[in-house]
Amino acid sequence: MAAWQHRLIYFRDFAYPSQPHRSRMPNSDIGDAPAGSFAAYVNGSVTTLPTPPLDPLDRIHKTALVAEELGAESGSDSEQGSKSSSRRSSSDSTRRHSHSRPTLAHRIYTQNLRVQANAKSLRARLLSGPLVDIYVGHSKKHWSLHRNLLCHHSEYLTHELLPTSENEDPESSIDLPDDDPSGFELLVKWLYQGKLDDVSNISDPYQQYDYAVACHALWLICDRFDMPQLKNLAIDQFRQGLYEAELVPDAEEINFIYRKSKKGSPFRRLMTKIAARQIMDPHANKDATSYLSCFRDDPEFAVELVNTIKNDSGGMLFEDPTESGDACIYHDHHDSPDCHQKGKPRTGT
């Protein structure tokens, strides 16, 4: 295993094992996520923390003791007796205050030590144990990942890899022939580094688009592995990548993504909205015929497309086609002023 895998492990997976798996990833943009809540990295050894500030009660007590010692050296016997009484009174007061609640700074310092101790212990556990061989895509690209780490993040993988009875042996390999290695590579990065690259940091628009395509592949993997928070992060990066690159999928890509997604999937909604906007855009050279392949392969796409246009067009109503007007629009002849219906008003109720 590479050295960086030992050095870079984040708090959120180790400090709070009692939290549900699904609440470990924030929904906000990863570029804006604070380190403490997203990926606060821990080194191999516990980081030395600054000495906490002196408790105010301890400061008062130390000042009193110094004053008593100075008074004892210069005072008389009676003063010494008085100081002894004062010392006893101060001692009693200190004992009374010894059970008071520690200061906020001291509690934060103690909590930081506890978090780092838990992180170090769980880090050693998750990056130990047997490795699982994973083969992705038709090319069978190979990764060897820690089984404890995979099971920690995915209940689906827990059921797949761990035996359900004493007579079974744990699985040592997984084949993912239908998945894209580019998406799985992003999953590995997130597992061991706790983050995905922000597409906004990529300068080339075509590379941004390729990164968005990889995020779609990651979304499909997370959908299978039951990792909803990372799945949401992946679709956010996909949308951001299209926006930054100022590119959208063509009809063939929309058809592929739509058919790869389950019914009711967020990616299906996203693809129908992109197609609907392209059709409605007066500056785009697109109409419904551009998506005939989508209609043929899945009639549900046509239904969702029409409903999307209806819901997102602002409720604009067409003119009544039965109302009197230019009737020649519906006549089977060339435009002619001699049409017998030209300008004829509608009769009846």
* Tally of separate helices: 13
Report how far the terminal alpha carbons are from each other. 83 Å
- The fraction of residues assigned to DSSP E strands is 5-15%
- Describe the global form: elongated
Percent of residues in helices comes to: 40-55%
Sheet having the most strands: 3 strands, mixed
Query: Unreliable segments (pLDDT under 50, ≥5 consecutive)?
Result: 4-52
Average residue-wise pLDDT: 76
Structural class: mainly alpha
Evaluate the radius of gyration. Answer: 34 Å
Topology as H/E string?
A: HEEHHHEEHHEHHHHHHH
Query: How are the strands of the largest sheet arranged?
Result: 4-3-5
Number of strands: 5
Provide a quick synopsis of the model:
The protein is mainly alpha-helical and 349 residues long. Helices cover 51% and strands 6% of the residues. Residues 132-200 form the BTB domain.
Can you characterise this structure?
The chain is mainly α and 349 residues long. Among the domains are: 56-97, no CATH class; 265-349, no CATH class. The chain is built from 13 helices and five strands. The protein has helices spanning 3-7, 56-74, 77-97, 104-126, 147-153, 155-161, 181-193, 205-225, 228-245, 251-260, 266-280, 292-297, 299-312; strands at 9-10, 41-42, 131-136, 141-146, 173-176. It has a three-stranded mixed beta sheet with strand order 4-3-5. A two-stranded antiparallel sheet has the order 1-2. The longest helix has 23 residues, at 104-126.
